[in-house]
Amino acid sequence: MNRFAILRVVAKLLIPAIMLFALYVQFHGDFGPGGGFQAGVIFAAAFILYALVFGIVTARRVAPPRLVNTTLALGVLLYAGTGFAGLLLGGNYLDYSVLAHDPVHGQHLGISLIEFGVFMTVSSAMITIFFVFAGQDIDERPD
Amino acid sequence: MAVTALALARVRNLFAVVMLSGIFSLTAAALYVVQDAVDVAFTEAAVGAGIATVLGLATIAVTRCEAEKKLKPVAFGPLLLVLVTGAALIYGTLDMPGYGDPSAPIHGHVAPRYLAESENETGVPNVVTAVLASYRGYDTLGETTVILTAACGVLMLLGRNRQRTRKTPPRDTAA
């Protein structure tokens, strides 16, 4: 799709805005609608748009499958690890109140951490699934 | 939405089916907004209307655009079964409390405590986030694990095949 100049320029303009919006949804999820799930999907949409316009091979170079697979697992690990951190600090599993000196701060910290874990897993999962689906016809060609 | 659903069942062109399901999701998202469930609407619009449509298009690009089977004549046995099940389900909903009824059981259990205390206890003004991440932390952990499992499944089914063909192309062409 390299010939479509308008598409490329518009995509280049849109992708940073989409990513910024994803981060806004992520960190504003405490105050308005949003959170890790939605932010992850929006963030992945930026990569999918990039892959659609600039080709799947270029997109794989930006987000190498090994890196995406790592963040895919790291997200759940961060979530479960936050739970274990609460356990080690003397609370129940996934009890965030013990994470900081003030229970409310601890809750806030815990929620931010697990939302970030959700964000990592969801965005990597979406990127992975799209890359695998869209990469089928490319990979079957001998290179 | 009913029109979209009927069209979805009748149309044989898979491209149109994907587009219609996207429209269906977007309508559902609008419905959620009307019902003040902004978080759900957000997710539906992003996942259902956005990602699912793109994935459907990607799948069509890999496979074919037309459905293979021709329409069969209506089978009356299954149709009767579906109608009876649907009627039973609708009969079951008659016992449910009216929409927005304050005396419904779901509003009497833990919901008042969440609404009253969540901001003081978690410091998070958005009750949905507080419930999702803190009070129902186990559920959300499970959901995240489901997404991880889904991605792993796709990788194992389709992703490993890719590596094998790339590593041993001569054997494939010989066979």
Annotation keywords:
heterodimer; A: 143 residues; mainly alpha; 6 helices; B: 175 residues; 8 helices; 75% helix; 0% strand; disordered C terminus
What's the total number of strands of chain B? 0
Task: Give the count of helical stretches of chain B.
Answer: 8
Largest interface: A-B, 56 and 49 residues
| Content-based structural category of chain A | mainly alpha
Low-confidence stretches of chain B: 164-175
Task: Specify the number of helices of chain A.
Answer: 6
The major beta sheet of chain B can be summarized as: none
Q: What is the radius of gyration of chain A?
A: 18 Å
The percentage of residues in β strands of chain A lies in: under 5%
Extended strand count of chain A = 0
End-to-end separation of chain B: 50 Å
- Which range best describes the helical content of chain B: under 10%, 10-25%, 25-40%, 40-55%, 55-70% or over 70%? over 70%
Biggest pleated sheet of chain A? none
Distance between the termini of chain A: 19 Å
Structure summary:
The complex is a heterodimer of chains A (143) and B (175). With 143 residues, chain A is mainly alpha-helical.
What does this protein look like?
The complex is a heterodimer of chains A (143) and B (175). The longest helix of chain A is centred in the C-terminal third of the chain and has 32 residues, at 103-134. The mean pLDDT of chain A is 81. In chain A, helix 1 (5-27) packs antiparallel against helix 2 and helix 2 runs parallel beside helix 5 (103-134). By secondary structure, chain A is mainly α. Helices cover 77% and strands 0% of the residues of chain A. Chain A is elongated, with a radius of gyration of 18 Å. Helices cover 75% and strands 0% of the residues of chain B. By secondary structure, chain B is mainly α. In chain B, 18% of the residues are buried. The termini of chain B are far apart. Chain B contains eight helices and no strands. Chain B is extended. Chains A and B meet through helix 2, helix 4, helix 5 and helix 6 of A and helix 3, helix 5, helix 6 and helix 7 of B.
